Amino acid sequence: MAGQVAVVTGAARGIGFGIARRLAASGADLVLSDLDVDALLGAEHALKEEFPVSVISCPGDLSREDVVAQLQTQSRERFGKVQILINCAGGGVIRPFLDHTAETLKATVDRNLWTVLWCTRAFLPEMLEAGYGRVINLGADSVRNGLWDHAAYNAAKGGVHALTSGLAREFATSGVTFNTVAPCAVATPQLIHFIETQPDLAQRFIDVIPMGRAAEIDEVASMVHYLALPESSFVTGQVISVNGGSSMQ
Fold first, then answer.
1. Could you say which of 88, 98, 178, 206 has the lowest number of CB atoms within 10 Å?
2. Distance between CA atoms of 142 and 144, rounded to whole angstroms?
3. What is its EC number (predicted)?
4. Is the pLDDT of residue 151 over 80?
5. Edge-to-edge, what's the strand order for the sheet holding 133-138?
6. What are phi and psi of 201, to 5 degrees?
């Protein structure tokens, strides 16, 4: 990936940071974005220390069109065109559906769907102009298999899944591919905290995985890495589960 530029949203920690690290190891220069400014700057520093690539950080709320416009402007000014967009920003409010408020429903859709819509809309034109690009979204295996307390979250992530196939069809001959990686539970710091605070509910989420464990971050990042490579050129419009068998086709 030397000479390519990847935008990774939700990159401060967890899956997003794992993906950024995997791309940096392949030589991609990086534009990182996240709401958490301090953690984002820490991620930028760590990647620069470990890999000989260029990395910049652009913090902000990517559910806002104006913030995404700033991200696109800073990316262009520093690197020129972007070849790879990883839409990893998200984070749902996981609770029984009738316990949601108007605010938590809006937050769930904003974080998981509007971030993808605005970022894709911002970076797609330059990919189309270049005749090459990779757009990779992070979805959720719970959209396929259903999980307790995930209805609102699944509504937002299901929109991401549907956007993937729609854009892949619309731009199939453009040289730009669109895919979604849909993990099950992943062993992030957030999951570990959830296991500690709500062990019974967390165990129910693990029990639906035939392999009997959560995914490792690197197992998700490796699939994203493949889809970002030039050799994945004939893969588009797919929702690819990394799920230990929790849904099977």
1. 98
2. 5
3. 1.3.1.58
4. yes
5. 55-57, 29-33, 5-9, 84-87, 133-138, 176-183, 238-242
6. -65, -40
Give all strands (DSSP E) within the chain, no chain letters: 5-9, 29-33, 55-57, 84-87, 133-138, 176-183, 238-242
What is the homologous superfamily of the domain 5-185+216-242 according to CATH? NAD(P)-binding Rossmann-like Domain (3.40.50.720)
From 217, 206, 90, 68, select the one nearest 152 (Cα to Cα): 90
Number of neighbouring beta carbons within 10 Å of residue 114: 20
* Adjacent-strand bridge partners of 118: none
114 residue type, one letter: W
Number of H helices, E strands in the chain: 10, 7
Backbone angles phi, psi at 28, to 5 degrees: -75, 140
With vertex at residue 41, the alpha carbon angle to CA 38 and CA 44, rounded to the nearest 5 degrees, is 150
Check 153, 171, 178, 205 and give the catalytic one: 153
Tens digits of residue pLDDT in 200-241:
878 888 999 999 999 999 999 999 999 999 999 999 999 999
Of 225, 191, 163, the C-alpha closest to 19 is 225
Q: Is 132 a catalytic residue?
A: no
Half-sphere exposure of 178 (CA within 13 A, CB side): 24
Q: Which residues of 57-78 are buried (b: 16+ CB within 10 A; e: fewer)?
A: bbbbbbbeeebbebbbeebeee
Tell me, what amino acid is at 53? Answer: V
